[in-house]
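Reviewers of the previous submission asked for a worked example of the structure-prediction workflow described in the proposal, so we include one complete record here. The input consisted solely of the amino acid sequence. No template or homolog information was supplied to the procedure at any stage.
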Amino acid sequence: AVWVSFVRLWRRVFDCVPHRRVRRMMDAPSRGAMDPQMEHLVLELSDPSTRENALLDLSKKRESFPELAPCLWHSFGTISALLQEIIAIYPMLSPPTLTAHASNRVCNALALLQCVASHPDTRQLFLQAHIPLYLYPFLNTVSKTRPFEYLRLTSLGVIGALVKVDDTDVINFLLSTEIIPLCLRTMEMGSELSKTVATFIVQKILLDDVGLNYICATAERFFAVGAVLGGMVQMLAEQPSVRLLKHIIRCYLRLSDNPRAREALRQCLPDLLRDPNFTACLKDDVTTRRWLAQLLINVGHASAGAQVAQMQGGTNNA
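From that input alone, the workflow returned the following structure tokens.
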């Protein structure tokens, strides 16, 4: 059954690539607009003997090649080569045998997919081919070793690149998958940086009306998200992180825009968010203080909200 799923996903990739145009990026009329070094490295991705070095070089230099994403997508066999790199890691996930070298190599491939996911000319093609589904097994891992943590973080970066641009089509696609439970898992057990990226993804989903309505449609979904957010607040009492707290507060504030969720938050919002000692770390972040003050007002703690709003602080770090 797993193999059948892979075959179906593989076919989607090729269905989304216009076959008659598959070499267009490499044809003579457009070659003048392409960086010769980029073209050479992309071609080397299709050769197993040169792929590893090409992955490394392209991942390091991808910011220097503005048209790398379209070139990756439209050049023959390149996306298939990147997917082969991903699938080759699956046997190392359970039992967990992933090495640092294997993790670094697949993360270089993921960095190129992130480039494709973030480019306006290839984002929709990336979604139509259901490429993000290939990353979900990585997000479903629980090992806390460095190779696995790096793998999860880089995979989250690909999803983060998708949601960074406000696009309801992206949100609809992600909600049709298991992205919410996978992000919640990372928010519970990941490193501080992985927690931050996963919370950012949930935040961006919530900021879209479709995402907010989806999460608030059932009590089970709302309380699943609320329980994880609450657990992270408790964790931050022992291991403070301003950047993570910022995303948590924004998630809570957005949830409070939904009438049913707002009523529930009156009962389940962590008391720590009303503790001046806990929120003192926000004194220099004007935007997050404003979010927290509005959240507390929304859920019926006007006096605490006013206290946060009056907190002495410095410049806006948003």
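Residues 17-32, 314-318 have pLDDT under 50 and may be disordered. We consider this example representative of the routine output the project will generate in years two and three.
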